[in-house]
């Protein structure tokens, strides 16, 4: 596949070939940078991620060595080294901003790393991120989650006061109560279609519009809207449906850290630790314990793109 850049933009810090990957519909432009020469600019990211004038993506991921990521501190580089992470996920949102973490992005870039021969297809892969080192374990095909399934240990979580935030959507009547969760990046999770919500059903929400959270959180946050669909007391597995508005790119078909934050809130509300959560891009498993969260889902290589 070939893609011609707009003549008004001279791209100098992106390699000539990039790859399109998605993980349950959360899509990314990715590339391998083994020597540290291809650190992208905000303008380049916005162009490539533009769905009309570029390739299109929720974000851009550069797979590189921790030493080549300019915003990392010495302690972050040391943490990656101590955690056995030779490779780092340098993730940027579609608007060009830096992102601490992207759960779906970890699966997408690990599949790409396998394709490029820098990750073993049969062994766990240690990946550096701005939210610490993550371990991804390949599981191949796994129903009902799909092909090229990985489980990623997303690490520790922090939950705030239950229902402490009012969540509204400009132009939509009603509100819901949200709970803050820190997954290395900030989330507010609102359960809809319950006693605290007067918003429409989760399918009818207008998430093109950015939700408003009150009281205001110091940093911008991702906002998840979730409905509990079923709980099987015998198996200890719950089912839920979720949609998300991600900071830096708007509504996405899936959000890995958002799924984990949702699982944390649902565990707090119900005591159930294992959830199959359906988003617009597919179904994923979220397993929550007191210590950490594990996310299981698929990834797909779409194609190689030559920049002209």
Topology:
Blueprint lengths: L1 E2 L13 E7 L2 E8 L8 H8 L9 E6 L9 H9 L4 E7 L9 H14 L8 E5 L2 E11 L3 E10 L2 E2 L5 E4 L7 E7 L3 E6 L20 E3 L7 E11 L4 E10 L3 E3 L3 H15 L3 E6 L2 E7 L4 E6 L1 E8 L1
Parallel strand pairs: 1-20, 3-4, 5-6, 12-14, 15-17
Antiparallel strand pairs: 2-3, 2-20, 4-5, 6-7, 7-8, 8-19, 9-11, 10-11, 10-13, 11-12, 14-15, 15-16, 17-18, 18-19
Organism: Bifidobacterium oedipodis
Function: Catalyzes the stereoinversion of LL-2,6-diaminopimelate (L,L-DAP) to meso-diaminopimelate (meso-DAP), a precursor of L-lysine and an essential component of the bacterial peptidoglycan.
Protein name: Diaminopimelate epimerase
Note the main attributes of this structure.
2 domains, mainly beta, 308 residues, 20-stranded mixed β-sheet, Diaminopimelate Epimerase, Chain A, domain 1, 4 helices, 42% strand
Walk me through what this model shows.
- The structure is a single chain.
- With 308 residues, this protein is mainly beta.
- It folds into 2 domains: 2-155 and 299-307, Diaminopimelate Epimerase, Chain A, domain 1 (Roll); 158-290, Diaminopimelate Epimerase, Chain A, domain 1.
- Helices cover 15% and strands 42% of the residues.
- It contains 4 helices and 20 strands.
- It has a 20-stranded mixed β-sheet that branches.
- Strand 11 and strand 12 form a beta hairpin.
- The model has no long low-confidence stretch (mean pLDDT 94).
